[in-house]
Amino acid sequence: MDPVLFAAPAAGVLALIFAYWKAGWVTKQDPGEGEMIEIADEIAIGAMAFLGREYRVIAMFVAGVAALLAAANMSGEARSPLIAVAFVGGAAASALAGFIGMRVATKANVRTTAAARHGIAQALQVAFSGGSVMGMSVVGLALLGLGGFYVAFTQVIFKDSLLTALNVLTGFSMGASSIALFARVGGGIYTKAADVGADLVGKVEAGLPEDDPRNPAVIADNVGDNVGDVAGMGADLFESFVGAIIGAMILGFGATCVAGGTGDLGPVVLPLAIAAAGTLASMLGTFVVKTKEGGNLQHALDMGAFGSAGIMVVVTFLLADMFWPEAGTALAGKEMVSAVDVGIATVIGLGVGVAVGMITSYYCSMDKPPVNAVADQSETGAATNIIAGLGLGMQSTALPILAIAAGVVGSAHFAGLYGVAIAALGMLSTTGIQLAVDAYGPVADNAGGIAEMSKQPPIVRERTDKLDAVGNTTAAIGKGFAIGSAAMTALALFAAFAQQANVTSIDITQPLVMAGVFVGGMLPFLFSSMAMKAVGEAAMEMITEVRRQFREIEGLLEGKVKPDTARCVDISTQAALKSMMMPGILAVSSPIAFGFLLGPEALGGMLAGVTVTGVCMAIFMSNAGGAWDNAKKSFEGGGHTTQKGALLAKGTDAHNAAVVGDTVGDPFKDTAGPSLNILVKLMSVVALVIAPLIANEVAAPAAGAPAPAAPPATAGN
Amino acid sequence: MDPVLFAAPAAGVLALIFAYWKAGWVTKQDPGEGEMIEIADEIAIGAMAFLGREYRVIAMFVAGVAALLAAANMSGEARSPLIAVAFVGGAAASALAGFIGMRVATKANVRTTAAARHGIAQALQVAFSGGSVMGMSVVGLALLGLGGFYVAFTQVIFKDSLLTALNVLTGFSMGASSIALFARVGGGIYTKAADVGADLVGKVEAGLPEDDPRNPAVIADNVGDNVGDVAGMGADLFESFVGAIIGAMILGFGATCVAGGTGDLGPVVLPLAIAAAGTLASMLGTFVVKTKEGGNLQHALDMGAFGSAGIMVVVTFLLADMFWPEAGTALAGKEMVSAVDVGIATVIGLGVGVAVGMITSYYCSMDKPPVNAVADQSETGAATNIIAGLGLGMQSTALPILAIAAGVVGSAHFAGLYGVAIAALGMLSTTGIQLAVDAYGPVADNAGGIAEMSKQPPIVRERTDKLDAVGNTTAAIGKGFAIGSAAMTALALFAAFAQQANVTSIDITQPLVMAGVFVGGMLPFLFSSMAMKAVGEAAMEMITEVRRQFREIEGLLEGKVKPDTARCVDISTQAALKSMMMPGILAVSSPIAFGFLLGPEALGGMLAGVTVTGVCMAIFMSNAGGAWDNAKKSFEGGGHTTQKGALLAKGTDAHNAAVVGDTVGDPFKDTAGPSLNILVKLMSVVALVIAPLIANEVAAPAAGAPAPAAPPATAGN
Fold first, then answer.
1. Where exactly are the structural domains of chain A?
2. Residue in A515, A526, A540 nearest the CB of B380
3. Of A128, B210, B519, B612, which is most buried, counting CB atoms within 10 Å of its CB?
4. ipTM of predicted complex
């Protein structure tokens, strides 16, 4: 057995040890005292309670799907019921990562508040450490699970058929996708129902400041930040990370291991190696994230993320050189691909990721022209603010899509469809630190909330606000990054599906494919509508409840009596659990129904349709929401100065109009938009999982036949 | 020369004579007196002035494109610079139809008001006659132009090459598309800038009723109804009608006239015959539209539209039997297709059109659950109303897309890709009466405005309101119908493009095609953002101007002084002319750039992308807008009763929230949404026009070689 096979699980274990160490450090920090601890406990208990209930619901879904998977794969060439085990493994690993990440995030929040009493540098350290536990848990469990299963399947269980091993491994990716779906949809509904309720009644109607303890929905809002932005984002990137690896592995298998191939395993193992190296680079990156008092926080975070990415640019070429067949190899879509070609394709992916992130950030940042224009349009009321935000969101799809399209063409130019998959992985190799930076945001946000609610001195809130502001920028970039990587991952999985289903051409001039493209293209709209509707209805319930409490609980608004926060937590929880099921079933059942009824080509058309509209809609909704959010924020503080020079202060009609926009944006950017990332990946991975079941017959013995089980020792140089 | 060739131009002439007769009848009706005439003149002058200025701008565009077309087709097999003549002809015919239709509509409006003083039956007669002039002008000029060019090209100019004749004929369709684009985008921006301005300041801020003469933007608003809903819708359906005919003709040519074909011209001529018959059926249908005092108006209109469609179901089979090769023929995608198969495919198209229209109507109708839910959500404010409307719009894409997908699969099952094209034509064969019913709406709307402004007795307004209410329902159905037919027409043109470009497969697993799908999928978002932004900015200017007039013109709000309506007309005009250019250039240049730079397969991917997201976005925006509109209306009159039984009256916060939603919906449903219909068709037709220039080489002598110039006499039985 080649020791290089253990690189991935070993890197995974290392990342988990790192996470454990960081978690221990966070726990040891000063949690403050009195009310601080009480509030933090309320948030932590609410978050863990929701996660527990959510997981119980998901467990039923997972059990049902696992049984179906096992039954459908009881017999048949290159199939095995063990796919159900891989599926449950993927689901469990993703769920566990979410659990660990949230647990630590809900400890880090109050400790960040406590640290902020002493200085911003310490507070950053605590908040970022909290985030990095999430980041490292995700990549650690992904690598350990995927790498471990790969070793077990290829070296022990399916020694004779690498194809079977890979087919079974797709179950892991599908398990991860299922968790991601529920985490994003459920978490997104939870957090936005609470947020909308807290904002509309608490802030607009009752005039309370953000995070005011008299607001009954404020605990639910803070819980929501954790279940939505920490656990949801974590599961999202877990899925992308795993999907990109598996997609590339399968395409690598197609390149060298099917009939006529050299049997060289390099292209199959390279993705695991890149992911493992990226995880190590991420760990290194976390050490760079520090700042002095008064230092530039954004710079500190950027140093970590870009530093890790920079390392990976170099390491990728080294790894490609190490694993890629020395003489080069032919790949689908390209006759001869060298190690350098593969390296370039990977770096192209990295570049596209950064580009999409930066463009997203431009469209959503305060003081940039797009957000300013939305703020300006608030002067004439909520309607023009909304029209402007919708227009901005639509416009903001253009450049990211061009970047993704260029990335597809460029990476395929160098390394065929394998290049597209490896580009997706290039984008995702440093997921560890990317996610640490992302998850830092809600920790800082929570810290601010706790500072406010526990009535800390203003300087504490000022410091957490600074952390939070940086968090918002990183969140915007992170969202763009999540969308870009989802698009590339979906394409990688799509290509892998076409290969595994023995589809030689998915021709859109064929009526069935056309129909598939149409129906697939419609699904993101239907899916988003479910999410929007769920948030709208839950928010309405929340609004009614908060209004009721203000009306009926005497002394609440005067601050003499505490609100019934548990009731609000319950409304969000119920709404999320109730409403996340249908979208989940839609996402899983559509590709299955299409694939079995109309064949793999029609399903391919459906995947193309869902990917293109899903990605466009995700960018549209995320960026519109982000812009509305910051347009509203630009009225706070000193007020917003329009292009024509008018100063519009907080509390004006224009500000109120901007609040309406922000509220509309909430389900856009935090529920429907991010859920679409999952939809496009999940549908592709479901297609990939069922590919062997609906595959076309092949005339020549190719992928369907037992693959040459080349000894792993041929991998590497 | 086969006399059957003259059927199409003859039917066109007949339709024009009918329109002339109807126009004369309308002109002869009582135009009322005094203030009525003054106001009507103001609207008519504003509308014609806008059309004149718009056409001058378009003329430059048309001249430029015509020159390019001529230059690009100076030489080359099966090409001719005469395509520029066909292009100018198509543009001129569409423009002329718009001119005639608007001219009569702006006469019919005040005459409808005058007739409403005597009774609703007479008022319906006048309004519908006005609409039918638009309907018959459109189909008349389309058939005369297209049929005339076809005769001239096939019988005189390109006697030896039917392929050349058809290639040149595509120019006519592109000319029609260009006018449609500007009419929809320009008209849409015009009408909504005025509408938003009139509503937000006049109604919400100043508390004036609809169409109050003190509102400075109210004339611009009424002008807008004409330029947007009459001229815009007319140009839209003109384009669909022509595009569906040409798409089917070219696919028919591919079926029988390329190498190996029988040379039978039946499949080429059949689309013209169906269109001609549909026009005659439409004329018959108009005679049925009448009602007694107190009769059911909706029923009267339905009788006309469904009656004509019913006739066509029968006639289609007769025509197919007459023109289709007796022995049947092989078509792309189907081995043997009989006349009955073709008839069935046509009727499937008709069915899909009706289905999409009905679904649209369900989602947008008052007192139906979707609209009621949006109205309910207004109780908690503008934000929840907007979220609900957006969710509804997204959800409403599902069934129409399923219907369209089923239509594609079904019609192709019976008659291959030719079946898809002929299905589109089946949907559009009765465009004459469909458009008459559509154009009736804005005439009735205007009549109400004139009644209000000229202070007619309440009974007059009540009657015009009844006419208007029916108009709104027909408008909703008409919009769905326009979208459905645009989708099918775009697919027909897409298939025709693939054939003419010698593309055997547009395989979405190819990276260039993938990139094409992505970029194409993004364009409707970019295009919509331009439209939304234009409306937002123009509306803001309008709002500022109306506020200024209320503030600065003393005695205006007391009704002692007249507002400066010309200034508002000017704002809308300027905004429309300024902002329509960029979307137009985007729509024309994208397929050209993609086709020449990346080849026909990448362009095919782009067309697929733009069609799927374009259609989804069009449905989403149209239906969200329609629902917001009627949600707002449900607060008027007796007030809206929520599901929980609360009665919310006019003027409550809930009603104001609904007004915000309606305002957001305005550019959605009347600017961006309908413009997308044009975008998808225009891009397909541009691709079809450049197809000979970017076509792949073919090994065997096929479409590229001179086609068998079978004598037309072989057509028919």
1. 3-331+430-706
2. A540
3. B612
4. 0.91
